[in-house]
């Protein structure tokens, strides 16, 4: 009887740990095309060459919740692959020794160690296998416009407004980065209210003069985009692009409402991210309606075409 229990425990451990690990290792070995590699600047400042498809597993793991629908993860894999491919060996820019880093300045990226820490050991194999399936299911697929890789920008949530045209957030216009409805079912998913004291405000703006009480004109939205997000803002007599104020004040988006009192400024931000390109939460909500990855990509990047790396 005791031996039966020992065998049962051993079999259970094999099912829970050994078999998934073996499958994961086999899949990981498959996701290594040797022809396309990317140079990644790691947090320790070491530059590591990785097969592009293997790198993408870490990117999708970092950039999109693993719980999302498979078709949304596939759309993310294509967008991230396109973003990375455009930056591999850019001949128009000085070679700084690497193509991307692991932060949001390029694309966020997780190592296997970070995945295990974030997801826990029991979820690690399940989530990683799912994300590998999304990467393998779109292997080599990229988005192009007029035969060139697009700027495959994406963000977390457009909130209560449509996505933005690229020229209303940055200076450059891209025909495929236009206003489209977010695709999100919950338009109130991200609402963040932040209160700044006068001292906070002066410090975050890098102002050295002594803080004073605020007046009604000390924070004003001077212009808005075509869908209603802040475009330029005047704060304490200085005019800033709303994107810069978003960074300086740590706002989640430029879709803002505000209230001024003599000793504090309260800003409520709706949505999360720059709102250009694909809304990740929108992509997931579309995937829940059985919309395929290629349709999701065509929706958020109108006029683009799917192609493969070897055909560019």
UniProtKB/TrEMBL annotation:
InterPro entries: Bact_Sporulation_Assoc, SpoIID/LytB, SpoIID/LytB_N, Spore_II_D_firmicutes. GO terms for biological process: sporulation resulting in formation of a cellular spore. Residues 46-145 form the Sporulation stage II protein D amidase enhancer LytB N-terminal domain. GO terms for cellular component: outer membrane-bounded periplasmic space. This is Stage II sporulation protein D.
